[in-house]
Task: structure prediction
Amino acid sequence: MAACMKFTQRVWKSFVDTKGHDAQCFPNLRILRARPGVVETALEIQPFNLNRVGTVHGGLLLSLTDTLGSLAVASRGHYMTGVSTDVCTSFVRPAGKAGDTLFGKATLTSLGRQLAYTRIDFTNANGELVAYGTHTKYIGKSATDPKNVKFSDDGETIVEGGSAN
Result:
């Protein structure tokens, strides 16, 4: 398994292990692929993810925008992914019902010394865009975390810092 994928999965596990919001809202989120700056995920929609009309709750998509934006930052080697300064999600069409799979693709569009900017696209099993969002993070203090690493351009190996384990 590529170092970037392994590291991003480790960061996701740390989110879930805190037993906070992420673990309550989407504990079954799966990371399908991770390369530096891009993370692709899948989530099987559960009954607790629905609104009262039986489709995915908008709050779930907003929470996923936040979390997947953080994972996009992690995919560039940041173990601590900073704090949110802005999160926005736009809803295009119903995102599914219980049993459907919701796919997310988070892209790190810019990573500076203080701020990181991400875009997240959500699609259904037919590949149709159901929602998209942006997430801005303040990363100034987290950029120097001792658990951070640097990957090769392809994300296959760690070229600086600790191990991906």
